[in-house]
Write a structure and sequence with these properties.
Blueprint lengths: L2 E8 L3 H13 L5 E5 L36 H8 L12 H17 L4 E5 L3 E8 L2 E6 L4 E9 L17 H4 L2 E2 L17 E4 L3 H12 L6 E5 L27 H13 L5 H7 L3 H6 L3 H19 L4 H12 L3 E13 L4 E7 L6 E5 L1 E4 L12 H8 L19 E3 L5 E7 L5 H4 L5 H22 L1
Parallel strand pairs: 1-2, 1-6, 2-3, 6-15, 7-13, 8-9, 8-13, 9-10
Antiparallel strand pairs: 4-5, 5-6, 10-11, 11-12, 14-15
Length: 455
Amino acid sequence: MLLIYDVVVLGAGFSAIAMACNLIETLPPSSSIAIVGDNPGFGRGTAYRTELYLHRLNVPASRMSLFPDRPNDFVDWLERKGKHVSGADFASRGDYGLYLRDTLAAHLRKRKCRVDFIKAKATGCIERYARTFGFQLENGDEIAGRHIVLCLGLGNAPIPVPVDSLTAAARSRIVRNPWRLSWLRRVRPDERICILGSGLTMIDQVLSLRAHGHRGPIEVLSRRGLAPLAHVRHPLPPADIDVGDLPDRLSAILHALRTAADEVEDWRRVMDALRPRTQALWQGLAPAERARFLRHALAWWNIHRHRIAPDVHQRFQTLRDDGTVRLHAGFLHSITETADALAVNFRPRGKSGEVGVTVDRIVNCTGMERAGIEHSPLLRAMANDGLIHADPLGLGITVDEGSRVVDAQERVHDNIYAVGALTAGRFWEITAVPDIRVQAQAVARAVADERAEAL
């Protein structure tokens, strides 16, 4: 017998836990919810499972509540746990993961409706009955739901050049997924390390290496050689900027923002003014302007927008200043092996010749892939069947303004939603907690309203 739930949530990261808690709060007692995912640390995802105290949130604690209408929820939890962290501080990501775990557990204890956790990966989807979709699971089971919420997040970006032709010994010195922290135990203190990518993941892994006793040189390679900038301990108020008055062409927008930054004490005031209006700014851009942004401005946007805690930045800057960490801007050409090492060959940015660095280990910190569908067997199957439609710029899937999924025929599914990074094509800023929590609450309320109308 096919078990049919009122809501099936597919995923096991932050978006899924936000959906689960909001659905439990919103749906009537007679409702049933299935949460389907194979992540062993449900709700904590990759980022919040870390236990290293140096891995900090990139957003102050006062903005990290799971619920937008209860802004002090996380700060209050920290206080109850005896953590001496103020709302302006950057709490550890491990503590945030524990907060998510405790919040979910509290909701389950007082839940009004049935909630089943199904540890499996969905591999296929088919409409079994009118407005009811069935999901094939990799363990051979099948479940179905009247409302579906896709919270499938992102996959790890692959090594950007082929490495399969290397010997097994050489491949063993390439860390494809740095979040499997067991690799750190194999690193000798004097090893020469090359990190591919210079974003937030790179910062985390540099600090992890130092905490585990590594003292060797670290070469960092990315296309533009840009590292994340820092928050300030005492931020000034956001600048007075009306996003509606900005031009509609990217070059003119950037010029206006640079001018605004020159006119204030701290450029962060301009970025903070944009934060609550970024989605509207993105949606006001024509498709060609969005593509131009991704090609030319994304790297600079990331380092200014996604900043790191001041003390974390200081630790990293110290390593740059003493020469332990060196940043290279260039285009990776190949990875080859020598007698007992690896050669990373690249073309420096702005130059025609190729250079190389010889290292003992390579760490892939190119981050998460852009919000596509290739990492998920379920999304690939749904795309092949026309149930979803990939965003033209590769930013997840097409959704409407209410996060409802749009199919290949441009028809809106009124009972299939997407939450989180999968909706970046429409919302752009939808990978951080402050944005996802608002979206999850809105989707939960929409599902509850639709269910009430159907009764």
